[in-house]
Model the fold of this input.
Amino acid sequence: MVDTTAVKLPHVLIVGGGFAGLAAARALSRAPVRITLIDRANHHTFQPLLYQVATAGLAPSDITVPIRWRLRSQRNVTVLMAEVREVRPREREVLLDDGATVAYDYLIVATGARHAYFGHDDWEAYAPGLKSIDDALSMRQRFLVAFERAERTLNPDKRRALLTFVIVGAGPTGVELAGSIPDIAKRAFVRDFRNIDTRTTRVILVEAGPRILSTFPLDLSAAAQRDLEKLGVEVRLGTPVTNIDADSVTIGAERVPTHTVFWAAGNVASPLGKMLNAETDRAGRVHVAADCSVSAHPEIFVVGDLCTITRADGRPVPAVAPTANQTGAHAARVIRAELAGNPRPAFAYFHKGDLATIGRHKAVAAFGRVHVSGYFTWFLWLFVHLMYLVGFRNRATVLIQWAYAYVTYQRGVRLIFDRNRLTQTGDRR
Amino acid sequence: MVDTTAVKLPHVLIVGGGFAGLAAARALSRAPVRITLIDRANHHTFQPLLYQVATAGLAPSDITVPIRWRLRSQRNVTVLMAEVREVRPREREVLLDDGATVAYDYLIVATGARHAYFGHDDWEAYAPGLKSIDDALSMRQRFLVAFERAERTLNPDKRRALLTFVIVGAGPTGVELAGSIPDIAKRAFVRDFRNIDTRTTRVILVEAGPRILSTFPLDLSAAAQRDLEKLGVEVRLGTPVTNIDADSVTIGAERVPTHTVFWAAGNVASPLGKMLNAETDRAGRVHVAADCSVSAHPEIFVVGDLCTITRADGRPVPAVAPTANQTGAHAARVIRAELAGNPRPAFAYFHKGDLATIGRHKAVAAFGRVHVSGYFTWFLWLFVHLMYLVGFRNRATVLIQWAYAYVTYQRGVRLIFDRNRLTQTGDRR
Done:
């Protein structure tokens, strides 16, 4: 491992290069510290657009940047591609995948969450979730292969099942996934196949709760549901999924034959959260103090999706990108204050609003009491997402892909690779 | 399988969606035939730019198009994503991966070649070749991971080995790979790492023969070698590689410690060539008649890299993209002639020239007796490659990536995914 003891500045170790980890690193750029940022991937992923990689609209490289490239000008940061296996709060060190340890003076844990199957881990093989580029590629693979298999089969029931897509969970990811499939099937793919009519594609969005986009205001949930239904998406509310296997998903008591299920229903926090001698909630998220630190260890901060904080009015802070940015930056602020001999500031959450897009040119948004939906909101969605994308090159290529898709109705990234995955879903006929 | 017996038009089955297969399909667009094109991938790959995917300059989707999208307007073609396991010339049918058979009246085999290790198949695990997008991603993974591992190690010998890249084989692919690495290491990556100086990267190009680009005119081989050496590439001529393992490559008698070897040294033809009751050469390529058909089976054509044809002057036709296009189109021409009751025309090869690029803005080219090299030739190379890329979107995105790379020296696609591959090369320290 890299020798980090030579220099005498305090060593801040950040684990995770998502929104929260990057925000923490950048907010320490002028602080008198040495920083090491560790991530098991070499890239930062812009998660809000992962669903567009999953549906062949954007390339993985459009929504990622190498973490070390992002931080190349910040000379007090060293980036390491490695996996942290264990946190040892008492020894103030972490253990890496290769057996090396890294000591810290401050630790910022920003390893986020994975999708969770609520005790049905066997469902993962049939219903991939969407947290990383690997996940998105696995989803894209299944999405594109389903049409290829439908084109090959002579069995009409099989064909119908292959052209049925079920999305489980109607948060923003599930809604955005469901909303993008109808246009692809009914426009982009329609002239490419000879044996199937892709316009017969069924999209079912299943939600166990009483409404879609449950964290959004009521009227926007209703507007988004109307928009989805206009696109032909079947929205099933108040019905949990009770089984998933290679050939079907069972919604309540109804068995729907399908070979393609996407999971957007739940999260479980990174296992590192359990190693911090701190209280965690049912999803494994760490309860942090007002300064984002862990009570037993003021030198350990937990930020982003891995932490849970309560707002002044008692409601929990939502697990969204702005929260990750704000908590990450706050941990840095606390460290800076402490090194300057000042008291630790408390975290104050600023809610930027709720925003989700539905299909080709609809979106819903809530900013405080202002609720908007429709075409103009979609432009806003587009602008906000482009603005927050890291890197000029990414902004340029995403804008071109979107313009191309908008004008031609085509999807630019219909690429099936890693052919071994073709057989993962079982029978190919 | 799809029922192709219903319509009475002759059925032309094309296996392979590379340059040759696509050219054959397109040249039959107005012929009175039904066409089925089968490929195990869903996409056509622009192989001449694969090396840029391998070195993180282009995204896979920049140089690929879905085959069915390319042929969407040609209503007499059905595209199937499937793998042909067996050709049965006597039964006039092929066997697919799922056990189905497809009958044909004419068969055009265009399944090309794979890289070959001359009896050292165990080398493949350490030295991937470059024929498909999967190959290119595997190479890119190793290329990027080598720098990540070098940044992590404290052992100077290990670091040196990790920053040594060996390319075996100095045809156009080997030369273009070798020529692109120095600029990446010395410019793009230099500010991103803290523990290593990427300018110390070594690139060794090994060629068993007496010169690089052996199919090019002598003076251009020499010019290309000078250009490579100016970039810092060590060119080793007349020395075969005698061993490759996880930690080293042995060049003649010298053992060079390295963890990253790229294979560009030899090809073996697709195994389908052996199933056609036809004579094959040592590399498994099928000797075809003057009309590109197999003597025992005039209804079977072999085109592209899988066939070998002799020119009027006795020299073999080179295995390059224009040959694939020309032989594919010729098979179609023969079928059209026969269906019109005309005699079968003979294939006449037109040599378009030789063209290879070296590094950031050098290239060599030969058109008949005109031999050129240098900056202007690089522009020509750029123009030719953009022109032959399929699809407006690809041309636009490739041009943007190149402009971006040219101005900033950066590589846009530094993305390591499929993390499981990280450990393939053994020890990660």
Remarks:
- Chain A has a mean pLDDT of 92.
- Residues 362 and 374 of chain A are 5 Å apart (CA to CA).
- The longest helix of chain A spans residues 133-152.
